[in-house]
């Protein structure tokens, strides 16, 4: 059975409000990206304790730490960032989260990503080493304007690093926004590495984000293929239906609910059970 999760900070900056709506929708997992307007990796010890207690009281578990690791430029200090990755592992352990979402580094305007390949792979290998030592799995998200923004370079990262602790998080909307038809052009190549699915959709014509199944993200085709090949994992709602920015997005309670309704309706239409 597939398990639904979601970037609950798209509901509200307040963790209590996030947890309340997740409970109303019947979700038992969240992707923990921020609380009280602060990124999860910047919460202090007291705030982390408060967050863990609150989630426990609501019967909520963390599917993944929605970290910003890898969302820096290649000319920025990597050693400081590597220390932040080690902190992310500690936070994942604290919340019993098996996954940490990461990225493969922003490219400066005018940079050919293929020219940056060696440095990207060096850094991704170092991050994988941190994950291996920490016993967690890193999920590489195909974000816009990073090295791994298109299927070919996503596969290059995953294949070249070759670590069981570095896997793929599939984001259909992000592929659409770089001109890729996700299922048609990326699924077969990425499926061997695909372990986690982020749910949002977008239109090819202008990149505008929309609810799942209402754009060009080929969500239904992807869902059918995952069912047929026995996928068993998380589907994490990341609607971005109101605001989008470099570190995430926002939807609000009503639009987050709309995104949940759109995706669960799609699953029902396909005869797929979820929890």
Give your account of this protein's structure.
- The strands form 4 sheets. Strands 1-12-9-8-7-6-5-2 form an 8-stranded parallel β-sheet. A two-stranded antiparallel sheet has the order 3-4. Strands 10-11 form a two-stranded antiparallel sheet.
- It is α/β, with parallel strands linked by helices.
- Helix content is 41%, strand content 19%.
- Helix 3 runs parallel beside helix 4 (117-134).
- It is built from 9 helices and 14 strands.
Characteristic key phrases:
275 residues, alpha/beta, eight-stranded parallel sheet, two-stranded antiparallel sheet, 9 helices, 14 strands, 19% strand
Measured as a percent range, the helix fraction is: 40-55%
CA radius of gyration is 17 Å
Order of SSEs: EHEEEHEHEHEHEHHEEEHEEEH
Instruction: Please describe the biggest sheet, giving its number of strands, its sense, and whether it closes into a barrel.
Output: 8 strands, parallel
Question: What does the average pLDDT come to?
Answer: 95
Shape: globular
How many H/I helical runs?
9
Low-confidence parts lasting 5 or more residues at pLDDT below 50? none
Strand order of the largest sheet: 1-12-9-8-7-6-5-2
Which class do the helix and strand fractions yield?
A: alpha/beta
The fraction of residues in strands falls at 15-25%
Distance between the termini: 7 Å
How many strands in all?
14
Give the assembly state of these chains.
Answer: single chain
